[in-house]
Amino acid sequence: MQELILFIMSYVVIFIAYELLIVNRAKKHEKKKKDNKEPVEIKFLVTKYKFNLKKLDYHKLLHVCAFVSSFDMALIVTLAMLFENGLLQMLVVLLLVVPVILISYYIVYLVYKKKGLI
User: C or N terminus of the chain, fewer CB within 10 Å?
Assistant: First the structure.
């Protein structure tokens, strides 16, 4: 039960911080369009999976990225906290970060592909 509470609390905190720091900043930069300061997640989806930002709703994609990134971070933190040894926690985080992020954004790609938006 404690793990579920930890997951929910960390997800909410990370999601709010992500929305305030990343999504709002990206919306402001998108309005200016002078500099190409997109979040890394958007750049990853564009380069790896050929997302066409002209075809997609950019603001919705930002919120999807916020949801997915927050979920990834909360999941990794929760799994790492299952171990009591600090070094083991760091090892779990290091081993899980890249695969979890790649899998979750692959799922985002599959969802957008199934909807016919790519």
Answer: N
Tokens (6 digits) for 50: 């050929």
Contact 37, 29 (CB under 8 A): yes
The encoded tokens of residue 97 equal 């970060």
* Residue 42, C-beta contacts closer than 8 angstroms, at least 6 positions apart: 26, 51, 53, 61, 62, 65
Smallest Cα–Cα separation from 75: which of 15, 24, 33? 15
Domain count, the chain: 1
pLDDT tens for the chain, residues 1 to 118:
899 999 999 999 999 999 999 888 877 766 656 556 788 999 999 999 999 988 899 889 999 999 999 999 999 999 999 999 999 999 999 999 999 999 999 999 999 999 988 8
Q: Report how far apart, in Å, the C-alpha atoms of 77 and of each of 11, 13, 34, 106 are.
A: 10, 12, 36, 21
Does this model's pTM top 0.90? My answer is no
Rounding to the nearest 10 degrees, give the CA dihedral for residues 36, 37, 42, 43: 60
